[in-house]
Amino acid sequence: VDLSVSPSDTQQYYFTYTDGVSGCEDVGTLTVNVLANPIVTASSNSPVCEEDQINLFETGGEATAWSWTGPNSFTSSMQNPSIIAANVIHAGDYTITVTDANACTSSQTTTVVVGVRPDAGFNTDNAVCISAPSAASISLTAMLSGAETGGAWSETTSSGVDISDPNSVDFSATEPGVYTFEYTLTGTDGCPDDIAVITITANDTECGAFPWTGSD
Question: Is 201 helix (H, G, I), strand (E, B) or coil?
């Protein structure tokens, strides 16, 4: 006789066997031990910035074997694997399946977010001629080579230069000297801010032709 049972915990079953010829009976006992699934705890160092390292962790403490799967066909049999240089293709859900000494298994998923580094462009130096009104304004925006839009401008030398319109900054009322401006793009999802520094020298003598004059 076959009998299927699905106990949620350890159970003892009693059965009686009757001989079909003699009519004699015998009683037997069957104990079904139900083993608990191993504890599984999946985590990571998410969010991470692109080009940084992704670290995956399983810290349940009961497994003897591990099997990770994830985006971009990622697989690993290590307990705590890493992806050396993160890319946006590595973002997504990573699932760990653990197996314990009794061959019982458990699974859990952790989500990894990969941020894109902001690009504020390159640091640049330039000059304006404050004694010539036609040459006393400059476009800070035009000096940002390859920068992404959406950043914020600030003036770090506390001169009071009006940069409300970074496309046309007027230096005609300023004193001769060196003025420093920063263009900042805020990083997200684990990426740091990126800052480009623009240094402007305001001259009132020896004014010649400057490569950046006026607005675009």
Answer: strand
Q: How buried is 43 (Cβ within 10 angstroms: 0-12 exposed, 13-18 middle, 19+ buried)? A: middle
From residue 100, alpha-carbon distances to 65, 66, 168 in Å are 7, 9, 68
Q: Determine the Cα–Cα distance for residues 110 and 80; give it in Å rounded to an integer.
A: 13
The β-bridge partners of 95 are 69, 109
**What strand order describes the sheet that includes 65-70?**
74-76, 65-70, 92-99, 105-112
Q: What pLDDT, in 10s, does the model give residues 18-71?
A: 877 887 888 888 777 788 899 999 999 999 999 999 999 999 999 999 999 999
In this structure, how many other beta carbons lie within 10 angstroms of the beta carbon of residue 56?
24
Specify whether the backbone of 22 is left (phi greater than 0), alpha (psi in -120 to 50) or beta: alpha
Predicted structure pTM score: 0.72
**Which domains, ranges and CATH numbers included, belong to the chain?**
10-116 (2.60.40.10), 124-203 (2.60.40)
